[in-house]
Amino acid sequence: MQIRNAYQLVELTRSKSSEKEAQLEAKLRESRAEIDELRIILVEREKRALLQATAAEENERLKREMNKARSKAEDEALVLAESSRAAEKVALLRLDSLAEEADKSCKKVARVTEQLDAAQASNAQLEAELRRLKVQCDQWRKSG
C-alpha cells in the first residue's frame, strides 16, 4: 500500500510537474513572442530616430546651402549695384560732355549763321555795286 501510495504520489507529482512544465513552456512562448514584438518596435523606433537624424542633417545642409546661395546672391547684387552706379556715373559724364558739345555747336551755328548773313549782305552790296558799275560802264561806252 505504501508503494502504491508512493507510485500514486510520484504519478501525481509527475502530472503536476508536466502541467507546470506545459504552463511554463506556454509562458516562455508568450514571453518570446512579446520579446519579438518589442524587438520589432525597437527596430522601427531606431529606424524612425535614424530618419529623423538624417532629416535633421539634411535640413541643416539645406539651410547652409540656402544661406550660401543667399549670400552669393547678395554679393552679386552688390557687385551689380556698384557696376550700375559706375555705369550711371560714366553715362552722366558722357551726357555732360555731349551737352557741352551741343552747346558749343549751337554757338558755332549761331556764329556761322551770323557770318553767313554778313557775307550775304556784303555779297548783296557787292552785287549792287557791280550792277551800278556795269550801268555806269555802259553809260560811258555809249557816251564815248
Walkthrough of the structure:
It contains 1 helix and no strands. The longest helix has 142 residues. InterPro entries: ICR. Keywords: Coiled coil. Belongs to the ICR family.
Q: Taking all residues together, what is the mean pLDDT?
A: 91
Supply the helix-strand structural class: mainly alpha
Give the uncertain stretches in residue-range form: none
Number of strands: 0
- The number of helices is 1
The largest β sheet comes out as: none
What order do the SSEs take from the amino end to the carboxyl end, as H and E?
H
Termini distance?
204 Å
Ordered list of secondary-structure elements with their pairings:
Elements lengths: L1 H142 L1
Short summary:
Residues 14-79, 109-143 form a coiled coil. It contains one helix and no strands. By secondary structure, it is mainly α.
Please give a handful of descriptors for the protein shown.
single chain; 144 residues; mainly alpha; 1 helix; 99% helix; 0% strand; ICR; coiled coil
